[in-house]
Each structure stands twice: as C-alpha cells, then as structure tokens.
Amino acid sequence: MAAPGENMRVNADRLWDSLMDMARIGPGVAGGNNRQTLTDADAEGRSLFRRWCEAAGMSVSVDRMGTMFATRPGTDPELLPVYIGSHLDTQPTGGKYDGVLGVLSGLEVIRSMNDLGIRTKHPVVVTNWTNEEGARFAPAMLASGVFAGAIDLDYAYSRKDPDGKTFGDELKRIGWVGDEEVGARKMHAYFEYHIEQGPILEAEEKQIGVVTHCQGLWWLEFTLTGREAHTGSTPMNMRVNAGLAMSRIIEMVQTVAIENQPGCVGGVGQVKFSPNSRNVLPGTVIFTVDIRSPDQKKLDGMRARIEAEAATICEALGVGCSVEAVGHFDPVTFDPTLVSAVRKAAEDLGYSHMNIISGAGHDACWAAKVAPATMIMCPCVGGLSHNEAEDISKDWASAGADVLFHAVIETAGIVE
Fold first, then answer.
1. Dihedral sign, CA of 306, 312, 316, 317?
2. Residue 146, φ and ψ in degrees, nearest 5
3. CA distances from 148 to 12, 79, 234, 368, 392 (A)
4. Which residues on adjacent β-strands are paired with residue 94?
C-alpha cells in the first residue's frame, strides 16, 4: 500500500542547477571551489542565496555572527520553527557539495512546498551558518558554536586568519554583520543534509545515510620551541630540533589512534615552520592534532595520553612545548524521534538506507545542544571530500533531498 504523499519529490533538475550556479562563485583551480568564509566570494554567494530565498517568498534575517535565516511562515505563529541548515563556505581547495548541498536542498524543500501548495503548521527556516569549515578562522562550526552558547561572541570576533585579520573585522568588511542576537532563536527541530565525506555509503551501495551519532573531537594546537641553527654546520648532538620533536609526536598520534580502535582517528593536517628555510633548523613549529571518536571516554583518554607523551618527547630533546585546545565538541547522539522520521521517509520513498555515524563535525553537533536535531547523508564518490575532485551524482543529491523534504514536512505538520 502506497504511503501518503509518496509521489511528492523535489525538483531534481532545479536543485542540481542551483548547485552548479553557486559553484560558479569562488571557483577553485581544479574544478572545485575556494569560497572561504568572509571573503568577497563568500559575500557574493550569500547575496545569491538571499535573492533565491526572497524569490521563494521567504524573509531573510542575519544575526551578529553573520548567520542567515530564511523563514517560510507556518499557519500557527505561536509554534517554533523547524530548521534546515548547513553552510556555503568552503575549504581553500574545496568541492562543490560539502555544506552547499544542505543549504540549497533546504531551499529546494521550500520551493517544492510552494510548487505543491503545501502549508505547514510550524514555520520552516533555512539556515546558512557562518564559518563551518574553520579553514580561515579556527575553530570550525564557529557561528553555530556561539549560537549554542559553547563559544563566546567576543572570542569568535577575535579569531585571526593566517594574515592576522580578525573574524569581526572581516565580517564587517563584507557587510554581513546582522543585528539579531546570536542564539535568541528557539528551534522545534533541526535537520542537516550533507554528503557523507567518507566511503561507507558508496561501498555498501546505499542511497541514504540515517545519521544516529556524530563523533566528538579535539583540535590540539602544539607550539614547539627549538633553536634556529644552520642545518649543515650544527652537529647532530648539539641541535634543539623542534621539527624532529614534531615528527615523533605525529608518529605517536598515529599509534594512539590505532591502539584505540575501533572508531578512533587521529592525524595532523596543518604545520607551520619558522623560519621555514631550507638550511635552517626551525626555531618554532606550530601544528594541529585532530583526534575524533564517538566514545567520550576514548576521546578524552586519547587527548590526555597525547599531551603527556608529547611533553615527554619534547623534554628528551630539550624542546619547549605548549598546547592549546582550539576546537572541541563532545560526541553527539541525535534525537531518536527525528532519526526515525528520516528512516521512515527513506523507507516510504523506497530508497536504500543504513544507519551511519558521522566522522566529520557539523553545525548539527552544536544545534543538538539546544534542540532536537539529526542529519541525513548521501554518498560521495570514493568518499572524497575537502578536495576539488569531490563528486556526487544528481540522483544521490535528489534522493537525500526527497528524504529531507518528507522528514521536514512531517515534523512541521502538514495543514490538510
């Protein structure tokens, strides 16, 4: 027996065209995008999104972190909104779908509701969170973290990019400082649709990932202090080599992650040598360790062990060592009722699906601290993301958007 409304689908062609139109803003050098947060390209992408939302009959407001909220009214103004959110900012060498798929699928849900004359009791709000990636300003998920009360607004404004420009100044420069208090909004529910950024769904030949949990993480920024010296004329036993200490710490992080299997990961993605000269031993090395696990005890245990063993490594080499936690959130269990709504939508629509744990951090992790929240995922080719070669198919994109559509309107309450 067919499920009610089973024939209702989003407009797959329109969704795909919107993705391609947004991808023209901030093009990368190898087919992807470089639309880092608070750049001119980010401002241009925001403006296009606002025009599309207003054309769909939504009102757009902006909070003091620059986060955009596009609202479609419900029939009962007393009810809290159902939110759909993700982000438009990208990595420096990012793909066309990471984050963007979720925002523009939210827009497509609204457009499809308009096409089909669907009214909901609860308002529906499509959200573009500022600085999800954390590529330019650490930590990641900055605006949603402030929204959830986990990050202080002044601290967020003070974050600096590699050129020393602050988040607050750059937000003002591009003209996207809103007047709405951050976190003043209340949510009935929050949905986020995203590419998996991993290989599991494609390998299992599943169209939909029903996300039940999200890994917690720590970003630990190490500053190692050695002594600058000529690489050719300084004897090996007389060196204070911060680079050597870093290499031993990286190997140790690998060992710690492997010994905490299953489910733990760890690695180093960013390194800065100073003075960064071919024939000078570094006086300072700064690098960030990224560790993640869905298990709180394992996550915190990994952090403690890494910091302790790093101190031992540096002491043996005479290298100074300091550590700052520049990013963190605890593991998240998503709302069972919303998870069930996603699973039911996939089943009703006939899409293959499986439960999955998100390996990456998302704005949903902070939203889950203040409201019922969940996520939907679609496959990506080879599990590749944070790379200009990131790719998905139109069918994958629309299948997840269909599930999002049905889960949202069920949660928002269709007016018959």
1. positive
2. -65, -40
3. 33, 20, 52, 9, 31
4. 33
Angle between helices 394-412 and 12-23 (to 10 degrees): 110
Per-residue model confidence (pLDDT) at position 163: 96
Contact criterion met (CB below 8 Å) for 407 and 208 = no
Q: For residue 3, report the phi and psi dihedrals to the nearest 5 degrees.
A: -75, 145
The confidence score (pLDDT) of residue 223 equals 98
DSSP-based three-state secondary structure for 362: coil
Q: What is the pLDDT of residues 132-179, one digit of tens each?
A: 999 999 999 999 999 999 999 999 999 999 999 999 999 999 999 999
- Cα of first residue to Cα of last residue in the chain, in angstroms, is 21
**Degrees, nearest 5: CA angle 94-96-97:** 105
The three-class DSSP label of residue 151 is: coil
CA neighbor of 401 nearest in space, from 77, 8, 10: 10
C-alpha Rg value of the chain to the nearest Å: 23
Determine how many CB atoms are found less than 10 A away from the CB of residue 228.
Answer: 15
Give 70's strand partners.
60, 126
Which residues make beta-bridge pairs with 180? 63
| pTM score, whole prediction | 0.87
Residues of the chain with pLDDT under 50: 1-4
For the record, the structure tokens of 124 come out as 């529906």
pLDDT for the residue 287 = 97
Paired tokens of 33: 């995008």
Q: How far apart are CA 109 and CA 124, in angstroms?
A: 10
| Polymer length in residues for the chain | 416
The helix/strand/coil state of 215 is coil
Answer whether 265's CB lies under 8 Å from 292's CB.
yes
Q: Cα–Cα distances in Å, from 6 out to 193, 210, 294, 403?
A: 20, 19, 34, 10
Query: Could you read off the pLDDT of 334-377 as tens digits, one per residue?
Result: 999 999 999 999 999 999 999 999 988 899 999 999 999 999 99
Quote the Cα angle for 404-405-411, to 5°.
85
The pair phi, psi for residue 141, each rounded to 5°, is 50, 40
Crossing angle, helix 296-317 and helix 242-259, to 10 degrees?
A: 150
Token pair of 71 as six digits: 């609202």
The order of strands in the sheet holding 284-293 is 265-274, 284-293, 216-225, 320-329
